[in-house]
């Protein structure tokens, strides 16, 4: 049973990490757009 | 556009919840492997989704090479990125399933496992190339790499049909004998992952367009900047 949970948790950790990286990229992009507007 | 994305986000969340419930509780327990077989409901749909994304990446790369279309280049980049995420899930969940069933994490030399790892490495190389190359020809070189990468997809898929491998037989086509209730759960999970992939690709598109515009504006800005 622990292998099953490990697999499901690993899957969501991978997706979660990717979404977190995307969110950080977007906030950086937003800052760059603000700087260009100044 | 925003409304469509919100609807897709809600549908994806609902489908993922139902799929998770069906995979962990709804699906019948497999007789020989027991509960660990339920990893299959995440492993297989993730592989199918990755294959589909790499196929789209291949088509977009060919379109880019023929027409030099920026939209096609963006689609190629996004599908490769999301495809790598799903392929990583496959690479990680496979050994977690193999350890209790085969007694080993990895079967060195097994053609299905090796070709899948090679596929993952090709697309990782593709993303590294796109991230760090400063050449004006980066998109062209990346498109060529993507076409070579896509050639590995049928090799991965058909390897268990034509070669002796430790990997289980295909669940569809020749040799497929999956319980209809398990099929049902498998398809729900695939639908959920397809919606997730579509949603991520969709949300990723506009910021990628904006990023390219920002890069161009910054380059122009630095050219026009007066010397101090």
How would you describe this protein?
The complex is a heterodimer of chains A (38) and B (228). Chain A is mainly alpha-helical. Chain A has one domain (1-38). Chain A has 1 helix and no strands. Chain A has one helix at 2-37. In chain A, 8% of the residues are buried. The model of chain A has no long low-confidence stretch (mean pLDDT 92). Chain B is mainly alpha-helical and 228 residues long. Chain B has a domain at 37-164. Helices cover 78% and strands 0% of the residues of chain B. Chain B is built from 6 helices and no strands. The N and C termini of chain B lie far apart (45 Å). The mean pLDDT of chain B is 90. The chains are: A mainly alpha (38), B mainly alpha (228).
Short description:
With 38 residues, chain A is mostly helical. Helix content of chain A is 95%, strand content 0%. Chain A is rod-shaped and about 55 Å long.
Topology, element by element:
The complex is a heterodimer of chains A (38) and B (228).
Chain A: H1 2-37
Chain B: H1 2-26, H2 40-67, H3 70-102, H4 111-132, H5 138-162, H6 180-224
Helix pairs in contact in B: 1-6, 2-3, 2-5, 2-6, 3-4, 3-6, 4-5
Summarize the helix and strand pattern of chain B as letters.
HHHHHH
Mean pLDDT of chain A: 92
The main β sheet of chain A shows up as: none
Radius of gyration of chain A (Å):
17 Å
Indicate the proportion of strand residues of chain B.
under 5%
Instruction: Sum up the overall morphology of chain B in one term.
Output: globular
Total strands of chain A: 0
- Estimate the global geometry of chain A from the Cα principal axes: rod-shaped
Computed over alpha carbons, the radius of gyration of chain B is 20 Å
What structural category do the secondary elements of chain A indicate? Answer: mainly alpha
Please report the two chains with the greatest interface, counting residues with C-beta closer than 8 angstroms to the partner's C-beta: A-B, 19 and 29 residues
Range of strand content of chain A: under 5%
How far apart are the first and last residues' alpha carbons of chain B, in Å? 45 Å
Largest sheet of chain B, if any?
none
* Structure classification of chain B: mainly alpha
List the secondary-structure elements of chain A in sequence, H or E: H
Distance between the termini of chain A: 56 Å
Number of helices of chain A: 1
The DSSP helix count of chain B reads: 6
């Amino acid at each position: 049973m622990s292998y099953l949970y490990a697999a499901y948790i690993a899957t969501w950790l991978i997706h979660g990490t990717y979404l977190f990286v995307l969110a950080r990229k977007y906030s950086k992009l937003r800052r760059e757009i603000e700087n260009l507007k100044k | 556009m925003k409304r469509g994305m919100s609807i897709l986000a809600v549908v994806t969340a609902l489908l993922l919840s139902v799929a998770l419930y069906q995979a962990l509780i709804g699906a019948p327990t497999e007789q020989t492997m027991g509960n660990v077989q339920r990893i299959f409901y995440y492993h297989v749909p993730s592989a199918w989704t990755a294959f589909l994304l790499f196929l789209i990446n291949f088509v977009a790369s060919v379109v880019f090479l023929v027409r030099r279309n920026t939209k096609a280049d963006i689609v190629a980049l996004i599908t490769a990125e999301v495809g790598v995420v799903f392929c990583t899930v496959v690479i990680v969940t496979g050994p977690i399933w193999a350890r209790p069933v085969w007694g080993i994490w990895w079967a060195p030399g097994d053609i299905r496992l090796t070709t899948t790892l090679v596929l993952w490495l090709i697309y990782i190389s593709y993303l590294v190339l796109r991230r760090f190359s400063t050449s004006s020809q980066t998109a062209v070189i990346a498109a060529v790499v993507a076409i070579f990468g896509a050639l590995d997809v049928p090799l991965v898929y058909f390897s268990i049909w034509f070669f002796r491998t430790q990997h289980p037989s295909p669940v569809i086509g020749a040799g497929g004998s999956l319980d209809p209730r398990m099929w049902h759960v498998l398809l729900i999970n695939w639908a959920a992952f397809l919606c997730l992939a579509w949603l991520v690709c969709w949300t990723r598109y506009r910021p990628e367009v904006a990023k390219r515009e920002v890069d161009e504006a910054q380059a122009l800005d630095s050219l026009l900047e007066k010397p101090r």
